[in-house]
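# nightly structure sweep
# worker-07 picked up a monomer target from the shared queue
# config: single-sequence mode, recycle default, output format = structure tokens
# input follows
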Amino acid sequence: MKTLHPATNNLGAKATERTVKLAVVSAGVSDPSSSRLLADRITQKAIDTLGEAGIRAQVSMIDLGPLAVDIARSLVAGYPNEPVQAAIDRLATADAVVASTPVYKAGISGLFKSFADLIDNDLLIAKPVVLAATGGTARHAMVVDGQLRPLFAFLRALPLPTSLYAAPEDWGTTDLGKRIARAATELTLILRSGVTGDIAEENWNGYQHQFGGNATRAGRTADDVNFDSDLMRLAAGGRSSSSGDPD
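# output follows
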């Protein structure tokens, strides 16, 4: 886990002792993995940019390759086993996420998607996510926005405006570095604003919660449940008040 100490502020924010947690999910399986290399570059730039804003960063790396068998077993069992649950728990405590996956045959890694299938729907609500992917050809570039962005939108995360894709010819260019810097700045500005926590807190009761066991705001009791809602009336065998009939 990396820890960054506050640096000179170039983004107009007063230096503070604030710390944010970044979870970096990489689905690369080769050694070295281009997806992990891209994730590392993004993460380091995010650390540097956050530091300039007076924010410390703690980084937790989640490499899915070593978890591949456990992820498959968890999917078959219908619930995460201990190693997968540990990775999900680290993701749950993060303030932001860097998600990096290889692209195979015009699609994101099956390993990455399988891990996402094990995540509670409430786990990433309002968390900013840097979307990134690597592939063997520029023809796959739109996979990031075509598949990763809808996935994290479904999970009600906040995918950043700048997505990142690196084909082999991109690694030696300045354009890739510029895009990484732009994404890191977007991440810093969102985290510095505090708006992500406000969104989750203010809208929590407005979401339809199918799962919530791992979400940091999911610690609700029976006292928090509105038993007078139409949904709860129907669940208890009564009629919805919107039907116009008495219960």
